[in-house]
Amino acid sequence: MGxxxxxxxxxxxxxEEAAALAIGIDPGEPGYLRTKSKHLYERMExxxxxxxxxxxxxxNAVVHWDEIGITNHDxxxxxxxxxxxxMQFDFDDGKQFALWMTDASRSAFEAQRFSRQEFSRWLAAIxxxxxYRFAGTQLSSIEGxxxxxxxxxxxxxxxxxxxQAAKRWWVNYDSxxxxxxxxNKDVIAWLRKEFSLSENRASSIASMxxxxxxxxxxxx
Length: 220
What we know:
globular; two-stranded antiparallel sheet; 8 helices; single chain; mainly alpha; 2 strands
């Protein structure tokens, strides 16, 4: 593996760059062969398409993970544009999001870029260790001494739900951009579907995760 530190200034990566860097290859070097990262690239595409399929399901749909080609929710891969479009869903009753999803050029896998945090999270979800360090803080580094984020040995089912929701919904939050904060309704819906929680319990967990300085309203 060559010196890849010049990529540390990059904010996001296209799929080819991300797949190559993960296996320790510089995609910008002369003689770069895409075939070496082919398998990871194809896995990325598969999981990105699974995320698209999931977002297009009706709210009350009951679907087993293997029906969309993955074994659990965390294996879905979210691009920066997909994340942004889905967060704007409430602003126009989903019209723009629907247009984006059906636009073959804009929502195509090849057109997507992926944040450091999301790609790092996804690699951990599929059990692949990257040779290039995408995220400055890996999820494992914020776990407590007992292996639970961030409270250590003490653990309950509710703390587990809080932990899973934090890792699923808040890893891409940028405090300088309020639009990167997930909508409470999305977190609540995910908690209810994933863990069969009541509306009140899911709402309480979502509220606890939402920072005190994040305004309510369109982004709540």
